[in-house]
Amino acid sequence: MKDLIVESPLNEQELCVKCGFCCDGTLFSFAVLQAGEQGDLPEKIEQSYSKEDDREFFKLPCSYFCGKCTIYDKKRASICSAFRCQLLKDFSKDKITQTNAIKIIENAAKFREEIYSLYRQIFGKDYTMSFRDLLVDLGKFGREDSENNSLNKSIELLRVKCNIFETLLIKNFKSIKNFERLLSTSMEMT
User: Fold this and answer.
1) Superkingdom of the source (predicted)?
2) Residues 47-52: what's their mean pLDDT?
């Protein structure tokens, strides 16, 4: 199998290293592998390998991500060098400056931290989890699980913040087409 290695310009690499949302579980719960990659991956990725039907993947957040990729300059899964988020695509097409791209990343990280902080405040859980895992955990709480109206309001506020953040992720990082589809669907509902 031929390795897919994509060498990005340094200014694009700087954005990727600054961000990491595709590695830390903010954008996705898993990363898809190419057929046959399993068995030739770094150890920690092999340990989180899974297969469902014909899809092979590893769970995110990546064990090699610690504020930034710790194996960025080493052999890793093809998706790690091939994935290009919407922000990176826009930057490479000169639709956004590097300064503005960095501001988007920093503001998204700050907003995500506000969500984590509110989550910890509500549930008293003092451990780090990915945004995707937070969404799954939050989904376990029904709308009326508590008789405590103040707690219900706090949980609803957290859900609203998560929805806003997810919309920002779709618009800025996932795909403009998905964002436009989301907007047109919501307009049809009104």
Assistant:
1) Bacteria
2) 92
